[in-house]
Design brief:
Elements (H helix, E strand, L loop, with lengths): L3 H12 L4 H8 L4 H11 L3 H4 L9 H19 L8 H25 L20 H4 L5 H8 L5 H14 L3 H20 L6 H25 L4 H5 L6 H4 L2 H7 L4 H9 L4 H4 L7 H21 L5 H28 L3 H4 L8
Helix pairs in contact: 1-18, 5-18, 6-10, 9-10, 10-11, 11-17, 17-18
Length: about 350
């Protein structure tokens, strides 16, 4: 058994994750205040939420608390991972800096800004920027000037003219994803045999990212095969996967859809209506990764592998809670809302 202390810590945290019954109970609630009370008194979030003094809470404040809880968990686990893997976990935590930048780009692109900007963003730990400064940018020119002081400027600068020409937000967010996943792939590839599970699940994640990008570029944006290649990960191990080559050269959306429903993870695609495929392809990918993590957990006896599985499960729990918040807020019927959960099938 490798890294027994990390295994004990990770399994303890994993045992506290929300159950299917928790999601069913929360879907039945009628207000964000009720949801906050449930999380505070009946789930592992109580330890974090008990520090608050809210009598009534807005959904944005609750989402911020959940973001802080997620980031805090990962930051605390940083001290227990093997020394040679610390760069990996540090980079994973830094991803939330990128998520904030993508959120800002979304506001600028849509020209719609929330009143309380900072409360919507992820907290940052290693700080290539301050949140208070980030949210002051209200034009693309201001934001590009701000980014010059961060490692992310050269990434965006390389594709910015293309964004201005096409006005496709995907160009900016995809550039950040390519930079992040390519660097993380190299970090993970250089880890030892103790990280075999991480290598496998992250390889799957990169494959799904490219499949999603192919779908968007070919069928939503009408790009050619060569144009689409510019939006795929520059990772040889991914680009040489036969499925990627086949999907990239398809010209018919139904053919693309049918191919996925007949191959690996087909049970997660087969129930998606063809006209809703664009909305649900990412969710199907996440369900495949979650199912793989849960299935593999039973066989793992390596503390680092257990820790890696926890990262995925914890991330998907946060995303499902955001879905629950929105469902309760808009009064969506539980039997309908549960279909949108990553844990929903």
């Amino acid at each position: 058994m490798k890294y027994p202390f990390l295994m004990t810590k990770s399994r303890a945290l994993m045992s506290n994750l929300l159950s299917r019954k928790d999601y069913e109970n929360m879907m039945q609630l009628s207000s964000i205040d009720d949801l906050f009370t449930y999380l505070k008194h009946k789930t592992h979030y109580g330890k974090f939420l008990s520090k608050t003094t809210f009598n009534s809470i807005h959904r944005k404040d609750l989402e911020l608390l959940l973001k802080k809880s997620l980031c805090s968990d990962l930051e605390n686990l940083y001290f227990y991972v093997p020394e040679k893997a610390k760069e990996f976990i540090s980079f994973v935590i830094d991803r939330y800096e990128l998520e904030n930048i993508k959120i800002i780009f979304g506001w600028l692109h849509s020209k719609r800004f929330p009143l309380e900007k900072e409360s919507i963003l992820f907290p940052v730990f290693h700080k290539n920027y301050e949140l208070s400064s980030l949210v002051k940018n209200e034009t693309f020119d201001e934001f590009m000037e701000f980014l010059k002081k961060t490692p992310y400027y050269t990434i965006i600068k390389a594709v910015y003219d293309n964004y201005l020409k096409t006005k496709k937000l995907f160009i900016l967010t995809n550039a950040l994803d390519i930079w992040y996943y390519t660097r993380l792939f190299k970090l993970i590839k250089n880890l030892g045999k103790y990280a075999d599970f991480l290598k496998k699940i992250f390889f799957m994640q990169c494959k799904f990212l490219d499949i999603s990008s192919i779908y968007r570029c070919r069928f939503l944006f009408g790009l050619s095969v060569n144009e689409t290649k510019n939006f795929l990960l520059p990772i040889k191990e991914i680009s040489e996967i036969p499925d990627i080559h086949i999907l990239l050269n398809m010209t018919n959306e139904k053919e693309f859809f049918d191919f996925l429903t007949e191959h690996d993870g087909s049970q997660y695609f087969i129930n998606i209506k063809n006209d809703l495929f664009a909305q649900n392809i990412d969710r199907a990918d996440e369900r495949i990764l979650l199912a793989y993590a849960k299935k593999t957990l039973k066989k793992l006896d390596n503390g680092f592998d257990i820790f890696t599985a926890y990262i995925y499960l914890r991330e998907y729990e946060y995303r499902d809670l955001v879905t629950v918040i929105e469902s309760v807020r808009y009064g969506i019927q539980p039997q309908k809302a549960v279909r949108y959960l990553i844990n929903g099938v």
